[in-house]
Amino acid sequence: MLHTIFIISCGGFFLIYFFLMALRPQEETVEARISRLTAKKSNKEPQKKVSFKGFISRLSHLTPQKWTKKLDEELLSSGIPLSGGEFIILQLFLFILLTLTGLALSSFSSLTLFLPLIALLLPRLYIMSAQSKKTRNFNNQLSDVLLVIANSLKAGFSLFQAMEMASQEMPDPIASELKITLKEITYGESTESAFLNLTRRIRSKDLELMVTAILIQRQIGGNLAEILLGIHETIQERLTLMGEVRSLTAQGRISGYVIAFVPFAIGIIVSVLQPDYLNVLFSNRIGISFVIAGLFLQLLGFMTINKIVKIKV
Q1: Angle between helices 65-78 and 30-38 in degrees, nearest 10
Q2: How far is CA 39 from CA 34, 53, 83, 198, in A?
Q3: CATH number of domain containing 214
Q4: How far apart are CA 221 and CA 217, in angstroms?
Q5: What integer pLDDT is reported at residue 25 of this predicted model?
Q6: Is residue 211 part of a domain?
Q7: 196 with 148, same domain?
Q8: Which class for 102: exposed (0-12), middle (13-18), buried (19 or more C-beta within 10 A)?
Q9: Which candidate, 210, 90, 91, places its Cα nearest to that of 142?
Q10: What is the mean pLDDT of each run of 10 residues along the chain (313 residues)?
Q11: In 24-104, alpha helices (H)
Q12: What's the domain range around 283?
């Protein structure tokens, strides 16, 4: 009994510690982001410090590069201050800890199955949630940025001067993304490539519309200020309509979340209060088949509700 309690305590402590370290907000300079994307190293040697972050960074070099390349872009687009290798190492630690905790709680059969599954799914869901949040914040700020850039162009500023002014006046995440784009151009990247990199980091239809207008104007000419003002009005109307749609579909979204997560909460509570009650579901093939079918139907129902209430504007 004491052995089980010790394993659970250690597993819980390290789980919380790794989770907090992974999600702790860390300031990353624009130069550091660009260096990580373009594989350019600074001439200054960083001061070596013994820290958990440094330990994870050293372990991250052992991960295959083909695994981390795409993950680097996803983490950067989501605003998580980790490299792909560091994220994989943290996810591996989380999987090991939850697996050991599940084995220590072998009397709770359902937890033995759920905990390793959570370690595989939760980090990916967090990345998707962070990407969605960053894109949503970016879209909410894009209209104001277009207005700043258009007014600056009318005042006689160049496009890059207007973008620099907007990056200084606006908050993150749009300020940091504009700074990255300007830094890429300063480091020798072509204007078209820098703007296309911006659209790859931020998956936004409104941003693609803005970038397309800028690139076309640079090739064939025209009044860029008037074009951006027209895009500004379109985005403003779309944001207003999206707000009305979200308010009308709020009840449906909440219903989907409740339907999706209540069965898991009930299963965990029952497993803790009556450990032997759910063992029959995991001790024979029929029970396991019911569990798999239930999970599939649960996922199908959540996706269906989400599809119904998610109206594209």
Answers
A1: 150
A2: 8, 20, 13, 17
A3: 1.20.81
A4: 5
A5: 47
A6: yes
A7: yes
A8: buried
A9: 210
A10: 52 54 50 54 45 62 68 77 76 79 63 71 83 85 88 87 87 86 87 87 85 87 86 85 81 80 84 78 79 83 78 67
A11: 30-38, 52-60, 65-78, 84-104
A12: 249-313
- Distance set, CA 158 to CA 150, 161, 211, 261 (Å): 10, 5, 16, 52
Whole-number pLDDT of residue 42: 42
Residues 6+ positions from 30 with CB-CB distance below 8 Å? 176, 179, 180, 183
- Could you tell me if 31 and 42 are in contact, meaning their C-beta atoms sit under 8 angstroms apart? yes
Q: Is 156 helix (H, G, I), strand (E, B) or coil?
A: coil
* 204, 278: one domain: no
Looking at the fold, whether 215 and 289 belong to one and the same domain comes out as no
Among residues 152, 218, 229, the alpha carbon closest in space to that of 191 is found at 218
Rounded Cα distance, 26 and 22, in Å:
10
**149 is written with which tokens?**
């850039």
Clarify whether residues 189 and 278 are in a common domain.
no
If one counts the domains in the chain, the total is 2
The whole-angstrom separation of Cα 30 and Cα 133 is: 20
The packing angle between helices 285-309 and 250-273, to 10°, is 160
Q: Is 249 helix (H, G, I), strand (E, B) or coil?
A: coil
Please name the amino acid found at residue 38: T
Q: How far apart are the first and last CA of the chain?
A: 57
From residue 242, give the alpha-carbon distance in Å to each of 31, 134, 246: 35, 17, 6
> 201 lies in a domain?
yes
Integer Cα distance of 275 and 90 in angstroms: 30
Measured CA to CA, the distance from residue 115 to residue 103 in angstroms comes to 10
Pair (143, 200) in one structural domain: yes
User: Which residue is associated with the tokens 């703007």?
Assistant: 195
Residue 117 near residue 153 (C-beta atoms within 8 A): no
Look at residues 77, 180, 177, 83 and name the one whose alpha carbon lies nearest to residue 130.
77
Could you tell me if 222 and 160 lie in one domain? yes
